[in-house]
């Protein structure tokens, strides 16, 4: 009767296949679960999130410079032989922070996030060394692409699912610890200046995260798609990361070799985004520093921290992304 027909319709609606987003989520979540079952990746997670505590510790210590009578000031007075002099020094540092928060607070967080980017990027590169063969190479070797790319799963679903694995990896090892460390710093912040002048460095750090995600995801997928062999994929990845990076590191290396290293290009992007050169130059010009030697050191550091040939860096990274994408899409065909 009509009631039975309605019941049958409800059953059919319940039996419909999962939606597009669910299929992509299954690929990403399954890959991440398999990845973090091993102790090696658990260790990487522990190291990554420990950096959040280190960031919070650095922020807390710096915040004590503006707290009158804080433990940093009192500790300087009692821990050194010339305690009164050290206490006066800490008071002077606190006064500089209060008078020039745009230089001191902004500069501190740029320095913290700049240092953290080395840890986050390094952990992701190590993790990708193990992840690369699991992205495409093993699927090609086992002919699993035939199953993956059969309906209702499309090549777009497969691509976005694999990108989701890499994005999740970077979120767990880099972006998540960065944001959590900043939140802990804000928890200990003594005034609103720490929040106001840390926003711009945080946005810069997130921008570098985004650049790293696009570059690393494209290159990792391209490398993984190059060969059916897991060992070959790992060797190609290590060659591009370690060998080419080491050859491009000396200042006398030819320009073409530097552009052939994606790690060198990411280093230049780091300099362009965090702009430590402007921080050091601003400190040398703005802060009332009596020691001329210190001023000269800041100016010298500013010149060394400046990015070189940003347009060439952007072109090189763009070429990496395009070539890697072409390789991936070309190989994304069941053979």
In DSSP terms (H or I, runs of 4 or more residues), the helix count works out at 16
Overall structural class, as computed from helix and strand content, comes to: mainly alpha
Radius of gyration: 25 Å
Mean pLDDT: 80
Overview of this protein structure:
The protein is mostly helical and 335 residues long. 82% of the residues lie in helices and 0% in strands. The radius of gyration is 25 Å and the shape is globular. Mean pLDDT is 80; it is low at 11-16.
Topology diagram in text:
Elements: H1 2-14, H2 20-35, H3 39-63, H4 71-79, H5 83-99, H6 101-141, H7 144-148, H8 155-187, H9 192-196, H10 199-226, H11 230-248, H12 255-259, H13 262-274, H14 276-286, H15 292-305, H16 310-331
Key features?
335 residues; mainly alpha; 16 helices
What's this model, at a glance?
By secondary structure, the protein is mainly alpha-helical. The protein is built from 16 helices and no strands.
């Amino acid at each position: 009767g009509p009631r039975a027909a309605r019941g049958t319709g409800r059953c059919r609606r319940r039996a419909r296949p999962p939606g597009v987003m669910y299929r992509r989520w299954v690929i990403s979540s399954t890959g991440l679960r398999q990845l973090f079952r091993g102790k090696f990746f658990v260790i990487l997670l522990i190291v990554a999130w420990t950096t959040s505590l280190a960031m919070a510790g650095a922020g807390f210590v710096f915040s004590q410079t503006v707290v009158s009578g804080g433990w940093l000031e009192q500790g300087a007075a009692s821990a050194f032989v010339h305690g009164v002099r050290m206490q006066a020094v800490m008071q002077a540092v606190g006064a500089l922070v209060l008078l020039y928060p745009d230089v001191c607070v902004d500069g501190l967080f740029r320095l913290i996030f700049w240092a953290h980017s080395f840890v986050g990027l390094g952990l992701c590169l190590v993790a990708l060394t193990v992840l690369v063969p699991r992205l495409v190479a093993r699927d090609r070797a086992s002919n699993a692409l035939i199953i993956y790319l059969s309906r209702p799963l499309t090549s777009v679903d497969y691509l976005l699912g694999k990108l989701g694995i890499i994005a999740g990896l970077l979120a767990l090892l880099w972006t998540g610890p960065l944001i959590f460390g900043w939140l802990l710093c804000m928890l200990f912040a003594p005034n609103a200046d720490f929040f106001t002048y840390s926003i711009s460095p945080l946005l810069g750090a997130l921008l570098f995260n985004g650049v790293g995600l696009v570059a690393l995801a494209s290159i990792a997928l391209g490398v993984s798609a190059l060969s059916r062999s897991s060992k070959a994929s790992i060797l190609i990845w290590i060659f591009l990361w370690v060998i080419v990076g080491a050859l491009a590191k000396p200042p006398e290396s030819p320009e073409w070799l530097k552009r052939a290293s994606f790690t060198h290009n990411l280093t230049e992007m780091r300099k362009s985004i965090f702009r430590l050169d402007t921080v050091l130059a601003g400190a040398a010009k703005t802060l009332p520093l009596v020691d001329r030697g210190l001023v000269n050191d800041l100016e010298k550091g500013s010149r060394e921290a400046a990015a070189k040939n940003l347009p060439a860096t952007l072109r090189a990274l763009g070429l990496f992304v395009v070539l890697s994408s072409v390789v991936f899409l070309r190989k994304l065909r069941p053979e």
